[in-house]
Amino acid sequence: MMSEKKRLHPVAMLLAFLTSLKEVAIPLVIFVFIGRGGEGYSWWHFLIMGAFLLFTLGNGVLSWWFYNYQIKNNELQIHQGFIFRKKRFIPRERVQSIDTSQGVIQRLFGLVKVQIETAGGGGEPEVVMSALNRFEAEQLKAELYKSSKSQEEETEGTPIIERPVKEYSLTKKDLIIAASTSGGIGVFLSFIAAIGSQVDNILPDEFYTTVTERVMDATLTFILIGAVVVLLLSWFFSVLGTVLKYGGFVLSRTEDDLIIKRGILERRQLTIPVQRVQAIRMVEGLLRQPFGYAALYVESGGGGGKDEQFSTVLFPLMKRKKIHAFLEELIPEVPVHQELKPLSVKARNRYMFRFTLPVIVPVGLISYFVPLGYLSFLLIPVACFLGYLHYKDAGWSMEEATTLLQFRQIGRVRVYVPRRRIQSMELNSSLFQKRKSLTTFQVSILSSLAGKQFRVRDIELIDGHELLNWYSYNYSVKRDNNSDE
Q1: What gap in Å lies between CA 172 and CA 183, rounded to an integer?
Q2: Distance (Å, rounded) from C-alpha 275 to C-alpha 449?
Q3: Less crowded by CB within 10 Å, the N or C end of the chain?
Q4: What mean pLDDT is predicted for residues 186-196?
Q5: Which neighbouring-strand residues pair with 312?
């Protein structure tokens, strides 16, 4: 019975201990290998390390002992903390998604980690339960997702687990293509840079001096070869990370939920109620667009991380021409359409100027102060071309129940937003836009960061007012009256 107070599985103590060690791993390594000086270890080194390990282990045990949860009065109630007691009450209707995953340790003991995301909960999960057995996790999920009415009608006992109605899997071929075109090289290089900044105090000064001298003495060919090797290694680890993350990807649709399972080392399962889907986003990356591939994301108020822009990956890779039929079959509750109204010619120069202006001053400085700097003038036509691409890809359209926005960030983005999920619509016009009767159109929806906005710049002002009228209450009343007649 979920109304009774329950604790996590005792393995949570081990997980808390390992998590604490991971958080202080680098300072601990510095203390062990650098802090000893040239005279070896003394008794106080062992005393400090032993005390630290005992404190960390004791903290894990006490955290587990004083952590309990229950579902009472239609809300999840959590009590935790042994020095400062903390109570959290989360109403059932605030729960946006429930994510279960299995790391290596959870797999060894047949357990799962449960992460609960709420509307406006921020970039991190509102609740993380590191170790629950499968039955308790499914029971918790069923209790939090079901309505008050079903709670009264259902008998207590084993939770009802819906059988998948439709199931879609990512093939091995598409997994390799998705990994090869993921564009995760930058993420990996950022990770290496972060590691480098942490070990800066560990390496001796002689190391940096030697490296600097060798780089200065190296030929241009050697430097280029080194750069290519670094990029290839980054690409390889990016591919490996994507394969481990999305290996075994399966998307299931039950009567009321979308269920996503993925991961090789860490097996994750995410359940998203269909009624809480806020928008669907299609992203065509620079490497994928020429081959007709795109990734699908769902905005549901929870489930994603920073690398996914706080969205949830609905399907990692799919042919663009198949997406319309796929969405109609998977989630007919969000009507999708293909027609797109492009921007007017008046907006073209504004897009090209917007990209070219930030380049002009740096190009002028480089050409004046740097030998062969005049070659930097080649950046100006490149910037113009990028602005033109953004202009060509931008557009909008609307049907009775859904609005469609398309724009380019790095890749081309297409967003389907149901009318009933829109939190607000805005038209913002600068002084220069007013002179050409243009405006910036923006739609806001609910997301894990309390709000997410999508905008298309420089649409016709009259089109912006048409979209506002489509969203307005008067339009809705008029449409309902016409349907009644």
Answers
A1: 19
A2: 19
A3: C
A4: 56
A5: 298
pLDDT at site 383: 94
CA distances from 392 to 341, 396, 475 (A): 11, 12, 30
What confidence tens digit (pLDDT) does each residue in 419-474 have? 999 999 999 999 999 999 999 999 999 765 557 899 999 999 999 999 999 988 55
Range in 27-31, 181-185, 343-347, 409-413 the model is least confident about: 27-31
- Quick one: pLDDT band at residue 20, thresholds 50, 70, 90? confident
